């Protein structure tokens, strides 16, 4: 895939861990904002601890290489989301955001759906005395004419 126009990749001196750490946070922010802009994404998730679960960590993980990044994203999605479409849209948006903002190429993007929100229950119908009066033409039922 041809890269989008943007600034050239930021130079990093070998062994410069402070710069790499700051760049990692910058990439996490760019990826997180792009992910949350996708319809159907409810939130970025954090992995849970527990039986057969990973250790707690970040919802967005980025490995920065020379001129490219590898990204992993953990998401909570809405019940009505069509997951293959959501992931395709997410890939487009994240790739575009990273390449336009930094000039780095997205080498890989791994998406894990950690949670699916249940459908929201419908609003309960509430009937009040004032609704009964207006339905009866303003008269109180049983009051006579």
Distance between the termini: 79 Å
Give the amount of beta strand, in percent: 15-25%
Mind summarizing the main beta sheet? 4 strands, mixed
Question: What is the total tally of β strands?
Answer: 4
In DSSP terms (H or I, runs of 4 or more residues), the helix count works out at 3
Overview features:
alpha+beta, 4-stranded mixed beta sheet, disordered N terminus
Describe the model:
- 32% of the residues lie in helices and 22% in strands.
- With 145 residues, it is α+β, with helices and mostly antiparallel strands.
- The protein has one domain: Alpha-Beta Plaits, CATH 3.30.70.1350.
- α2 links the parallel β3 (68-77) and β4 (105-116).
- α1 (17-36) packs across α2 (83-102).
- The termini are far apart.
What does this entry show, briefly?
Helix content is 32%, strand content 22%. It is built from three helices and four strands, in the order H-E-E-E-H-E-H. Helix 1 crosses helix 2 (83-102).
Helix and strand arrangement:
Blueprint: H1 17-36, E1 41-44, E2 60-65, E3 68-77, H2 83-102, E4 105-116, H3 129-135
Parallel strand pairs: 3-4
Antiparallel strand pairs: 1-3, 2-3
């Amino acid at each position: 895939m041809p890269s989008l126009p943007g600034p050239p990749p930021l130079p990093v001196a070998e062994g410069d861990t402070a710069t790499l750490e700051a760049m990692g946070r910058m990439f996490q922010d760019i990826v997180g904002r792009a992910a949350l802009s996708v319809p159907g994404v409810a939130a970025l998730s954090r992995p849970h601890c527990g039986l057969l679960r990973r250790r707690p960590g970040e919802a967005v993980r980025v490995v920065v290489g020379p001129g490219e990044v590898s990204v992993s994203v953990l998401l909570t999605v809405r019940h009505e989301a069509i997951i293959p479409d959501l992931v395709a849209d997410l890939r487009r948006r994240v790739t575009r955001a990273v390449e336009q903002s930094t000039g780095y190429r997205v080498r890989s993007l791994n998406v894990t759906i950690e949670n699916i929100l249940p459908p929201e229950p419908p609003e309960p119908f509430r009937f009040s005395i004032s609704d009964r009066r207006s339905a009866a033409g303003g008269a109180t039922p049983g009051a006579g004419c």
